[in-house]
Amino acid sequence: MKMASSAAFDIERVRRDFPILSQQVYDKPLAYFDSAASAQKPTAVIEAIKHTYETEYANVHRGVHYMSQKATDAMEAARETIRAFINAASEREIIFVRGATEGINLVADCWGRQNLKPGSEIILSQMEHHSNIVPWQLIAERTGAIIKVVPVNDAGELEMDAYEDLLGDRTAMVSLTHVSNALGTITPMAEIVRLAHARGVPVLVDGCQAIPHLPVDVQALDADFYVFSGHKLYGPSGIGVLYGKEVLLDAMPPYQGGGEMIDLVTFEKTTYADLPFKFEAGTPHIAGVIALGTAIDYITGLGLEKIAAHEDDLLAYGTEQLGKINSLRFVGTAADKTAILSFVLDDVHPHDIGTILDREGVAVRTGHHCAQPIMERYDIAATVRASIGLYNTREEIDVLVTALGRVQEIFGS
Amino acid sequence: MSTGLSDLYQEVILDHSRHPRNFGAAESANRQARGNNPLCGDRVTVYLAVDGDHINDARFDARGCAISIASASMMTEMIKGNTVAQAKSLFDRFHTLVASDAGESGESNGDLDEDMAELASLSGVRAFPTRIKCATLAWHAMSAALDGADDDVKTE
Q1: From A285's CA, which of A23, A161, A316, B3 has a CA 20 to 30 Å away?
Q2: Can you give the C-alpha Rg of chain B in angstroms?
Q3: CB atoms within 10 A of CB A171
Q4: Do the Cβ atoms of B9 and A26 come within 8 Å?
């Protein structure tokens, strides 16, 4: 048995923190390579949800009673944890949403309604997830705005020259991914923001795939909006974060109306609550917020640098081992990438590969990864995507390689 | 092979997927319909030459997995020369075979005619619920082509 990983990171101990990883599927140990779709949860997160409902649960922000105050304190403590994690300037800039999708829809809708005119241009890239395409199409239809697309080169890197050329007088918004979910490419976000700001254009960053793997400092990036989902960060599903600069959020109209987001309501006029509550209509996912705070504490406890080093080791090892398979072709070979091994095999469709790997206990994602435009770019319908989480091991990569051998046996390739 | 894979990837299926019959657009076709599987991006177009009540020719074009290609290939072989009613009846029986609980208890082999016996090679997908739509995609497109539907059919 080879050493699992670098000595600095006790992978066996980390794996024990994730109860689901000890499961067997089809009598095989589970090798979970689908964290980019959704990450598994450590015991601390599962316990945080249980603890909330057992000891500190009530509705937040309006009860005068003890339990309501306790729940409010716990939820607002989590907001502070999240603020510190991404180094936002203020808790008022941390808006809780259901996930990154809702965060982008919120900005497209609220910011877009106010700022987009016929002919305004929104810059996206060829490798965006559908959730960073469709909300902009919806608001473009309503406002007459136009979508411009930054192309991606053969390796899966943004064509920065083309991006610069697209930035023009009509550019109203740049909305780009920090890490491609289909390819693993890390985009040069600080440079992207710098070029946009030079023309006075705000930037929304889709940070879903970046936040579990890279340290994110929204002030250093100077991002205007940054969105991510809790469930990809080892937290619960149904909770996500929209970061926005206070000056921008202040100027935007509310997203949804309801309780919690008001200051004073009469039938003549309603005034809205201050940030962040203006954008948090209705009872939030209280336990989800608290458990997301716990997930972040868990990750920072392990150390983001150690996690990144472990994952980079697995990415390099996986690239080397999978690269030995003759009929395998990687999709996404950017010089700067993280945590994603996306590939196709000659003559075997990704769905058939996925089914065979599944019966070997290996969970991968097969399909277009909600990023059909980038599949079109490479003239393929789908890829196999093995995505790496902090709990994966070199041994699991070996299992993946062996399972791909089974595919070749069955298909005789 | 273990865990149902040998039932799913039978030799006849692999053969049809590697060497699909009636593959490519048909010039004589007067009916066609496209099927999309939005889950995986797979597409199939079925071309039919229908004269009155008879299907004189059936061909297909597809981008998809082994199961969807094999199923489309077998289908075109079987419905060629069928009446419209026969083709629809075959679809119903095939759907029951691969997708329904009734198919689970199943008709006994003795009840199956020749076509159904060959199609039974696809019944292995019952153990793979996420793959049933792969097997039925071309059939939905065929049915839509017979109905003269304008819209693409989706598996969702």
Answers
A1: A23
A2: 15
A3: 18
A4: no
Instruction: Return d(Cα B42, Cα B68) in angstroms, integer.
Output: 9
Nearest to A207 by CA among A110, A107, A109, A120: A107
Can you point out the beta strands (E) in A200-261? 203-206, 225-229, 240-244
For the question of whether the overall pTM of this predicted structure is more than 0.90, the answer is yes
In chain B, the number of structural domains is: 1
Structure confidence at residue B28 as a pLDDT band (50, 70, 90): confident
Q: Residue B59: which H helix or E strand, with range?
A: strand B54-63
- Token pair for A225: 């909006």
- Ranges of H-type helices in A129-232: 134-143, 160-166, 189-197, 218-221
CB contact at 8 A, A45 and A295: yes
Calculate mean pLDDT across residues A58-70. 90
A58-92 per-residue burial string, b: 16 or more CB within 10 A, e: under 16: ebbbeeeeeebebbbebbbebbebbbebbebeeeb
Contact criterion met (CB < 8 Å) for A367 and B39: yes
Give me the residues paired with residue A348 across strands: A345
What are the φ and ψ backbone dihedral angles of A247, each rounded to 5 degrees?
A: -65, -35
- In CATH terms, A11-42+303-411 corresponds, of 3.90.1150.10, 3.40.640.10, 3.30.565.10, 3.30.450.40, to 3.90.1150.10
CATH no. for residue B124?
3.90.1010.10
CATH number belonging to the domain at A46-300, selected among 3.50.50.60, 3.40.50.300, 3.30.230.10, 3.40.640.10? 3.40.640.10
Residue of A nearest to B67 (CA): A352
Q: Which one of A138, A155, A308, A370 is the catalytic residue?
A: A370
pLDDT in tens, A242-280: 999 999 999 999 999 988 888 889 888 889 999 999 999
Residue B1: inside a domain:
no
Interface test with B, best of A345, A359, A366, A368 (most B CBs within 10 A): A359
Taking 80 as the threshold, does the pLDDT of residue A172 lie above it?
yes
Question: CA of B144, closest CA in chain A: separation in Å?
Answer: 23
Q: Per-residue DSSP letters for A267-283?
A: SS-EEEPPTTGGG--S-
Q: What are phi and psi of A239, to 5 degrees?
A: -140, 135
Catalytic site includes residue A208: no
CB contact under 8 A, B67 and A410: no
Which residues in chain A are classed under CATH 3.40.640.10?
Answer: 46-300
Report the pLDDT averaged over residues A371-375: 93
What residue in B sits closest to A375 (Cα-Cα)?
A: B41
Q: Is residue B2 part of a domain?
A: no
Determine which of B3, B132, B137 to mutate to test the interface with A (most A C-beta atoms within 10 Å).
B3
pLDDT at B108: 47
B4/A359 touch (CB, cutoff 8 Å), yes or no:
yes
Over range B132-149, report the average pLDDT.
92
Of B5, B18, B130, the CB nearest to A410: B5
